[in-house]
Design goal:
single chain; alpha+beta; Glutathione S-transferase Yfyf (Class Pi), Chain A, domain 2; 2 domains; 9 helices; 4 strands; 9% strand; globular; binds glutathione; Glutathione-S-Trfase_C-like; transferase; Glutathione S-transferase family protein
């Protein structure tokens, strides 16, 4: 059985969300967002940087949310959450799947560092403003693409577990401005999904 190492409120929610959508049974280990929780030698043996998500599946231990999601889709029944390679949707599925960690998360990471992780005396407003600006620019093409769409690809796909989760987080951090109506609507669609609700509540009880 897959074992998922998850810290509440993090990217690990993407993997939990996919597992819930696919109705795959999994074991959960919740690690607190603390030095003891993530930087223990035990967790560093799974991920050298002491980060989440990580999954174990038999002899396999794998990290990186995107890689984990692809792995699960390829090794388990993907239930149509990944378009066929020959389909018209496939290139755009790949594009948005990777746009998440490639373009949206770098400024988001910086915003988290500058607003939460650094002690107030080490925060830099210029760096924060640059990151906010870059995040907004990175979200613009997503907002445009979502015009007249409920989800990125078809009725729902694993690209939503990646980029949709980032849009949800950006919105929670008040980084989606009021003009990005399509992203606001998209996040509302995501929030209605039972699997998403379950995934983001994990470890919070
Ligand atoms: N690109 C990685 C990023 C992993 C990552 O940075 N995870 C964060 C949580 S969202 C983490 O574990 N942070 C702990 C730390 O920075 O010490 C992925 O997509 O899995």
């Amino acid at each position: 059985m897959i074992k998922l190492y998850l810290t509440p409120g993090t990217r690990a929610g993407r993997v939990a969300w996919l597992l819930e959508e696919l109705e795959i049974e999994y074991e959960l280990e919740v690690l607190p967002f603390t030095k003891e929780g993530l930087k223990s030698s035990e967790h560093r043996s799974r991920h050298a940087l002491g980060r989440v998500p990580v999954i174990e599946d038999g002899d396999v231990t794998i990290f990186e949310s995107g890689a984990i999601i692809q792995y699960i889709l390829d090794r388990y029944d993907s239930k149509g959450l990944k378009p066929e390679i020959s389909s018209e949707d496939y290139p755009y599925y790949l594009q948005w799947f990777h746009y998440c960690e490639g373009m949206v998360m770098p400024p988001m990471n910086q915003i988290v560092v500058q607003t939460i992780l650094l002690p107030p005396e080490r925060r830099d407003e210029t760096v924060l403003n640059q990151a906010m600006n870059l995040l907004s620019k990175s979200l613009n093409p997503v907002n445009e693409y979502l015009e007249n769409k409920d989800y990125l690809i078809g009725n729902f796909s694993a690209a939503d577990c990646m980029l949709g989760h980032s849009c949800y987080m950006a919105n929670r951090m008040k980084c989606v401005n009021d003009e990005m109506l399509n992203i606001k609507r998209y996040v509302a669609n995501i929030e209605e999904r039972t699997s998403f609700q379950k995934a983001i509540q994990l470890g919070a009880e």
